[in-house]
Amino acid sequence: MSFCLAVLGATGLVGRTMLQVLEERAFPVGELRLLASDRSLGSELRFRGRAHAVRVPEPEAFTGVQLALFACSNELSQQWAPVALERGARVVDNSSAFRYQEDVPLVVPEVNGDRLAARPRLVANPNCSTIQLVVALEPLRRAAGLARVVVATYQSVSGAGAEALERMEREARASLGGADLDGAARPAPLAFNAVPMIDRLEPNGYSREEMKIVWETRKILGLPGLAITATAARVPVRVGHSEAVNVALEQPLTVEEARAAWRAAPGVRLVDDPEKGSYPMPLLAAGSDEVLVGRVRRDLSQPNGLDFWVVGDNLRKGAATNAVQIAEELVRAEVGSR
Ligand SMILES: NC(=O)c1ccc[n+]([C@@H]2O[C@H](COP(=O)([O-])OP(=O)(O)OC[C@H]3O[C@@H](n4cnc5c(N)ncnc54)[C@H](OP(=O)(O)O)[C@@H]3O)[C@@H](O)[C@H]2O)c1
Q1: From ligand 1's centre to the CA of 37, what distance in Å?
Q2: Using alpha carbons only, what angle is made at residue 217 by residues 260 and 265, rounded to the nearest 5 degrees?
Q3: How far, in Å, from the CA of 80 to the mean position of ligand 1?
Q4: 110 within 8 A of 266, measured Cβ to Cβ
Q5: Closest by alpha carbon to 284, among 18, 293, 234, 191?
Q6: How many CB atoms sit inside 10 A of residue 67's CB?
Q7: How far is the CA of 10 from the centre of ligand 1 (A)?
Q8: What is the per-residue burial (b if ≥16 Cβ within 10 Å, else e) of 10-26?
Q9: β-pairing, 146-155 with 122-124?
Q10: Which of 66, 200, 255, 317 is the most exposed place for a label (fewest CB within 10 A)?
Q11: What is the pLDDT of residues 61-112, one digit of tens each?
Q12: Backbone φ, ψ for residue 42 (5° rounding)
């Protein structure tokens, strides 16, 4: 059995990665419709060795579509998700347009994949930083309970889309050519810089990205009262988000017990032999679907505390792979219901 699939935002960083992941995982694609802006009209993308023309979204483009993967802005998701749903498609959306609606499941299959059993029509894919965080937190939550989480992110530039990546590369070339990057400029330079503001500033002083991590971690883990605080920064890395995580656990858990929990957990790779120079890094995580965990140590400042470092490929597990995993579960549930 194969499915008619549409990808909105197919030419972007996440959209292109989705096509790669769909191909790698042999997703049962029958017909494929690739949608992007009119800037991409006339261009083609290859899927399974065949060139597919890129179209602009219009209502007819969703007629007959069974599964639509959205990798576009909030505004486009808000505009086109109702159209796709109305025409009978199931939608997996990568934007944050629907993530905080109570009736829309926000899913990381390794953590709360059971939310897909009811075959929801619309599923939200979480924020990239949140996905890798909850994959690393879930084994600790199961082993010893979470009392408090403190996370600082070091997020790669591809997390801000294709244009940001091109801008960083232009800035890097200019700077290496002798130009001065003005650190006070707006938007702040991405090359050779660290920018502690991702998305807009919220009235409470956090950035929107930081609040996404707070809201989404609570929703996915099913812990609405979890004490959690985040600082999110953009760093001049091409692909791969890093996170320094500090947790206070409800029960004691040794470093070795924590390592054993991560070793047994789906989607996690323990990379933790610092004496041999083995620790998670973006260059190690890029291209992988696993969340890398390492630099594990007891937090000396509190009982039941642990510090560790988490790295994931934001375009794959942080976006495309997670969305395709959700689509696979929806397809399994669909086939099982027949
Ligand atoms: N990058 C990440 O690591 C990441 C991780 C998790 C979630 N996300 C989310 O995923 C979404 C896509 O991110 P991205 O990084 O892939 O962005 P991107 O590289 O900027 O790609 C944006 C896509 O949207 C298309 N688009 C723009 N305007 C359009 C229009 N008017 N009509 C139809 N298509 C239009 C673009 O088409 P053209 O090429 O024709 O302009 C492109 O295909 C965003 O909501 C983002 O927040 C991204």
Answers
A1: 10
A2: 20
A3: 14
A4: yes
A5: 293
A6: 22
A7: 8
A8: bbbbbbbbbbbbbeeee
A9: unpaired
A10: 200
A11: 999 999 999 999 999 999 999 999 999 999 999 999 999 999 999 999 999 9
A12: 95, -15
C-beta neighbour count of 27 within 10 angstroms: 20
**What residues act catalytically?**
128, 241
Look at residue 149 in the predicted model and tell me its pLDDT: 99
State pTM to two decimals.
0.98
Query: pLDDT tens digits for 221-277?
Result: 999 999 999 999 999 999 999 999 999 999 999 999 999 999 999 999 999 999 999
For the CA of 56, the closest atom of ligand 1 is 33
Three-state helix/strand/coil letters over the chain: CCEEEEEECCCCHHHHHHHHHHHHCCCCEEEEEEECCHHHCCCEEEECCEEEEEECCCHHHHCCCCEEEECCCHHHHHHHHHHHHHCCCEEEECCCCCCCCCCCCECCHHHHHHHHCCCCCEEECCCHHHHHHHHHHHHHHHHHCEEEEEEEEEECHHHHCHHHHHHHHHHHHHHHCCCCCCCCCCCCCCCCCCECCCCCECCCCCEHHHHHHHHHHHHHHCCCCCEEEEEEEECCCCCCEEEEEEEEECCCCCHHHHHHHHHCCCCEEECCEHHHCECCCHHHHCCCCCEEEEEEEECCCCCCEEEEEEEECCCHHHHHHHHHHHHHHHHHHHHHCC
**Which ligand 1 atom is at minimum distance from the Cα of 315?**
3
Pocket test for ligand 1, best of 73, 74, 78, 326 (most atoms within 8 A of CB): 73
